[in-house]
Amino acid sequence: MPWLNFFKGNKDAKSVATKSHLDNLIQIAKIDGYYDEIEKDYLLKVAQSYNIPARNIEEVEKYSHKISMAEPENKEMIYRQLYELVGMMLADGVVHNQEIELCARFAEEMGVAQSNGMIFISNLVKEIEKGATPQDIAKFLG
Known about the structure:
CATH class: Mainly Alpha
Protein name: Tellurite resistance protein TerB
InterPro entries: TerB-like
Low-confidence stretches: 1-5
Strand content: under 5%
């Protein structure tokens, strides 16, 4: 059961940060009370970009909320994860205030939105809606 080891046993920093990020994505998707196929597809796409196979998404969902927040290992990962979190907010075409609030909390916990996370995330949403890439986000945050 290597996948179970990913969630229960593997404690290296990169693995812990990936678990945390996937949990954060699920929390963003579910906070509005709906977790639809579009959001599940987005989660699958992101998980696969971290080399997590599709067959393991149910395990990700099963362990959601049982994973502690872990800070990404470097600035590039912070930018990527913020981009993906905002992407999840935008996935279903409707951005709810609860999603912005939760994403702002995650940004604050990552150390990038210390003063006003809501405004920070709202501006980030606008940039991504205009077509910003993760690399553009690095410039926006830099």
